[in-house]
């Protein structure tokens, strides 16, 4: 479909994620004008690392489990042909990124309960699609307890117990869970959502509202908007766009207009 639309196309297929990343970086270095990620958030993250900070445009044809990067950009999620048409005739738009541990992310960095859910979901092979996160969440609820966090928000330190802390450049993760519902890809800031300790029963009552972004109305949820946030909690791991970053502590900063993406609406 790309070729039929007049594009000159080279297919980059790596046997491993590392090889695919090398191919993507090499292609960007060779002077391409657009790098298209065909896959889920993991493939988008890989492609995005290659084009971040350059003038090369990122196109996305979502066909993964969560597709939250594509969702944040308003791309067609269940129509690959329509997503390809956005690559051919969409508009180029600069959007923000988050940066952590020498890499960037487009959607959400998670830690605490949600990072444990991510680990559990990634290990599942018998559940497919976004429901994998829901199954993993129910399983993790039986064993997870709130943990102590030290959070530094633009230099202001907070020490508290929390179920999870999510840092959103975009609004959602886990296949449409709007954990940072007000996150804006063009405001140059990061949204931080903190869920305070909850019983399993209260957490289960709160959970459905995450898909509507209404959980932030709860007295057990705090939200902040910052340029930089540092997270520290013993034994916790951070995930960015569903990919492991590493153990806390981590420092996350906003990267205004750090990426050029192709979005629906008009001709480039």
Brief account:
With 268 residues, the chain is α+β, with helices and mostly antiparallel strands.
Report on the structure:
- With 268 residues, the chain is of the alpha+beta class.
- The protein has helices spanning 17-29, 41-51, 68-72, 80-89, 113-123, 131-141, 200-206, and strands spanning 34-39, 57-62, 91-100, 103-105, 108-112, 147-153, 156-162, 164-168, 190-195, 221-226, 228-232, 237-240, 243-247, 250-263.
- Strands 1, 2, 3, 4, 6, 7, 11 and 14 form an 8-stranded mixed sheet that branches. A 6-stranded antiparallel sheet has the order 10-9-8-5-12-13.
- Helix 2 links the parallel strand 1 (34-39) and strand 2 (57-62).
- It starts with 16 loop residues before the first helix and ends in a 5-residue tail after the last strand.
Element layout with pairings:
Blueprint: H1 17-29, E1 34-39, H2 41-51, E2 57-62, H3 68-72, H4 80-89, E3 91-100, E4 103-105, E5 108-112, H5 113-123, H6 131-141, E6 147-153, E7 156-162, E8 164-168, E9 190-195, H7 200-206, E10 221-226, E11 228-232, E12 237-240, E13 243-247, E14 250-263
Parallel strand pairs: 1-2, 2-14
Antiparallel strand pairs: 3-4, 3-14, 5-8, 5-12, 6-7, 6-11, 8-9, 9-10, 11-14, 12-13
Number of helices: 7
Residues in β-strands, percent: 25-35%
The number of strands is: 14
Q: Into which percent range does the helicity of residues fall? A: 25-40%
- The helix-and-strand class reads alpha+beta
Rg, nearest Å: 18 Å
The description of the largest β-sheet is:
8 strands, mixed
Shape: globular
How far apart are the termini? 18 Å
Order of helix and strand elements from N to C terminus: HEHEHHEEEHHEEEEHEEEEE
Mean pLDDT: 91
Which spans have pLDDT < 50 for at least 5 consecutive residues? none
